[in-house]
Structure formats: structure tokens, C-alpha cells
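User: Please predict the structure of the protein below. I'd like the answer in C-alpha cell form so I can feed it into my own downstream comparison script.

Assistant: Understood. Taking the following sequence of 79 residues as input:
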Amino acid sequence: MGPLRIILTVIFILVCLSLVVLVLMQEGKSAGLGSISGAAETYWGKNKGRSMEGRLVRFTKILAVLFMVLAVILNLNVF
């Protein structure tokens, strides 16, 4: 096992653990009773992309892409 493969495997494990933590930190997508009264159209509903929840979603997408790329690279058996 080459040193590059070991480094990529360690990075892959760190990405996996980070992805699990980020998914567990996110709120559920069920709107509950707030959608009945129109609470989704408040200031916080419109600016959700700039909030902590929006950043968690963005980091989750980035880590998911990184996860897929690393999985493909590690399965090429080039190293």
C-alpha cells in the first residue's frame, strides 16, 4: 500500500465522519404547523441560505462530492 493511498484513505475516513456529523446537525425538513400559518415566508425563511442551516447544507454538499470523488479514486486501484 503506497503512501498516497494511505493519505487518501485517511482523508476519506475524515470526510466520512465529518459528513455524518454534518447530517446529524441539520434540522429536519418537515415544516410542521408553521407551513399552515405561512411562517415559512418570514425573514428567516427567506434568508435561510445565509444562516447556520444554510452553511450546513452547503458544507454537506461539498463533502458529499468530495466523498464520491475519493471513493472513485480509491477504487481505481492505480496506487
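That's the full C-alpha cell string. The chain has a mean pLDDT of 83.
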